[in-house]
């Protein structure tokens, strides 16, 4: 699992039928410290979050698990909303 900030939305009028009625969001991966790491990406929202929220996401095969038994073509899915991060000084991120 990884941390990210939701930074935008994606509107697609034509998409795979497995994505029908699914919300697509642009997320920016972050370190535990809150600093951006890497490029932003598109993820399917499985929990009902929005722009400006901090989330937990998964990648790869596990990205389709929140939607089982439906088959959803996903490489990244948001699986949780972050309420707080406790980052202890001296720990690496």
What would your notes on this structure say?
- The chain has no helices and five strands.
- The chain has strands spanning 2-10, 23-30, 41-45, 54-59, 76-81.
- A five-stranded mixed barrel has the order 1-2-3-5-4.
- The radius of gyration is 14 Å and the shape is elongated.
- It has one domain (2-81): Beta Barrel (OB fold (Dihydrolipoamide Acetyltransferase, E2P)), CATH 2.40.50.220.
- By secondary structure, it is mainly β.
Can you tag this structure with a few keywords?
0% helix; mainly beta; 93 residues; five-stranded mixed barrel
The CATH topology turns out to be OB fold (Dihydrolipoamide Acetyltransferase, E2P)
Helix content: under 10%
Strand order of the largest sheet: 1-2-3-5-4
- Give the helix/strand class: mainly beta
Low-confidence stretches: none
Q: For the residues shown, what is the average pLDDT? A: 92
> Which percent band covers the strand fraction?
35-45%
CATH class: Mainly Beta
What's the CATH H-level homologous superfamily? EutN/Ccml
**In whole angstroms, how far apart are the ends?**
14 Å
The ordered H/E elements are: EEEEE
Task: Name the overall outline.
Answer: elongated
Radius of gyration from CA coordinates: 14 Å
- Tally of separate helices: 0
Write the layout of secondary structure elements.
Elements: E1 2-10, E2 23-30, E3 41-45, E4 54-59, E5 76-81
Parallel strand pairs: 3-5
Antiparallel strand pairs: 1-2, 1-4, 2-3, 4-5
């Amino acid at each position: 699992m990884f941390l990210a900030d939701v930074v935008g939305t994606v509107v697609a009028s034509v998409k795979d039928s497995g994505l029908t009625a699914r919300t697509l969001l642009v997320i920016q991966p972050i370190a535990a410290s809150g600093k951006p790491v890497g490029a932003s990406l598109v993820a399917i929202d499985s929990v009902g979050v929005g722009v400006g929220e901090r989330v937990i996401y998964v990648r790869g095969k596990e990205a389709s698990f929140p939607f089982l038994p439906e088959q959803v073509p996903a490489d990244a899915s948001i699986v949780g909303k972050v309420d707080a991060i406790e980052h202890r000084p001296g720990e690496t991120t």
